[in-house]
Design goal:
With 258 residues, the chain is an alpha+beta fold. The chain has six helices and twelve strands. The strands form three sheets. A five-stranded mixed beta sheet has the order 1-5-4-3-2. A five-stranded mixed beta sheet has the order 6-12-11-10-7. Strands 8-9 form a two-stranded antiparallel ribbon. A hairpin with a 2-residue loop joins strand 8 and strand 9 (197-198).
Length: 258
């Protein structure tokens, strides 16, 4: 079964994204480093990927001519927020239309009885913790050749060997930092695009890369575990890293906060 995206499932009026931002507990849903082409880009990304995961887990409920899913967000009073859909009356378009974001106590959700649960991203809690006893093998050639544009200036224009030395030092510093405080490594959910379609998602960990100051992260290194080894897959800008990490939880580490 092909994974369904939120836009394939339903029409979503743009104004409702603002409604959700106002209904949910206060959070910065905008990028820190670069301007975005839409309001609340982090929230937009969060909704799209949360829906895809819920779709995989069969946690999108349909009943009595309506549909809903658990956004994973809560109000200031910690009441769960659901996306509520009604049939789309426009022929030839998506089957559903997003009608509103509603609190769990909203009467429109009564027909569903047992409401759908949260998106689930991991099986073992231990997968969320970086084991500093294991070796880390970063793919430095890929990071420097294919992701050079993600580096801040002046590193973007550096000679390859010079950048490699700096990057290797930043990675070793990150490992020591995580060894002192396991919360430094932030869980990250990454879903690749395969032949133009969303692929299978994987759990990764993000490590801070400090290129200019020991307490300031400039980039994030995405790593994943293969047996008894961590592989460093790629680097992310801090905006990209927050986008991916926010799917699992609101990051509370000081180096990756919106």
């Amino acid at each position: 079964m092909q994974l369904q995206t939120l836009f394939e499932f339903a029409y979503m009026p743009p104004i409702l994204l603002e409604q959700l931002a106002e209904l949910a507990e206060d959070e910065n849903w905008n990028y820190r480093q670069v301007p975005a082409d839409r309001p609340y880009p982090i929230l937009f990304n969060y909704l799209q990927h949360t829906f895809m995961r819920l779709s995989e887990e069969n946690k999108v409920s349909e009943k009595d001519g309506a549909a809903c899913f658990n956004t994973g967000l809560v109000t200031e009073l910690q009441e769960a927020i659901y996306a509520y859909f009604v049939p789309n009356i426009n022929p030839g378009q998506q089957r559903w239309k997003l009608d509103a974001f509603v609190k769990e106590s909203d009467r429109r959700l009564l027909p569903f009885g047992s409401l759908p649960g949260l998106a689930h991203y991991f099986e073992e809690p231990g997968d969320l913790i970086y084991d500093a006893r294991l070796p880390l093998r970063p793919n430095l050639d890929h990071i420097m050749s294919d992701n050079r544009e993600r580096f801040p200036e002046p590193f973007r224009a550096m000679e390859t060997y010079q950048l490699r030395v700096i990057l290797d030092g930043a990675i070793q510093h990150a490992i020591r930092r995580v060894a002192r405080n396991y919360k430094t490594a932030i869980p990250n959910y990454y879903r690749p695009t395969v032949q133009g379609r969303p692929g299978k998602g994987t759990l990764q960990l993000l490590l801070p890369l400090s290129l200019t100051h020991p307490r300031k992260a400039d980039l994030a290194l995405a790593v994943y575990r293969e047996g008894e080894v961590y592989l460093g897959a790629t680097i992310l800008t801090l905006d990209m890293a927050y986008n991916n990490a926010r799917l699992i939880a609101r990051p509370d580490s000081e180096w990756l906060q919106a």
